Amino acid sequence: MSLPVLSNIDINNTAIPGGIAVVDFYTKHKHPTAFYSNVPVYVQHQKDTHWQALIGIPLLAKIGDKQLIVKGVSEQKIAFNIKPHHYKEQRITLTGKNKKYLNPNLKQRDRIIRERPILTAARSTFSAQALSHSNFIRPVSGITTSTFGLKRFYNNQARRPHTGLDYAGKIGTPIQAVARGKIIVSDKFFFNGNTVFIDHGQGLISLYLHMNERLVKPGQIINQGDIIGTIGQTGRATGPHLHFGVYLNTVVINPTILIKDGAK
Asked: Where are the domains of the chain?
């Protein structure tokens, strides 16, 4: 039996769009599985027959009652509720060479299309076993310049909400892995710049964007605190910083839920 990897979640306040719904269930099955919207979710053993499912909730999810399906000795259908939450707005002005990220040309759009399946496959990775048994640490020590979920406008044009945390830092500042895992992507992309994805098991994925250097390769096993690269300004970045994100059951969630001081 392993200790819960996500033991610092505030289960009373995280079942919101962009958050985590923590659903308790009970089974005598030694290896139960659970599904939300036909996608497998993270499960962790608490004690005896007590288990928890950790469900990433989409930022654009509708509030109200939802259903978790647990498969073990028998199938269980467990209801849970998503609560409303309001995220603030952020307006960003792109100038000079950064304007290409607002209206990419044909060649750039072709590149974006080619990159899309790679990114989709990375955030959809699901390893049966958890690769880490500890809570996350901060990837860098810099202050947070943009919080999760901000409704973003680039040059007054609405774009997708902010899907992570932006940490300030000088170019070359070391970035550490937030937990033990396996490198599944280490590459450079149009919007994301130099990017690393780490698989922590059971659909829990961390990602690191706009890096200056990538110091790891796909397939490499890294431990919590290992240096995986450095802060940069590659891709759509108006200044040097690290964009840090987390996926759970293919859904981007607020990293501050997993890192106690993540927003400081």
From this structure: 20-82, 89-257
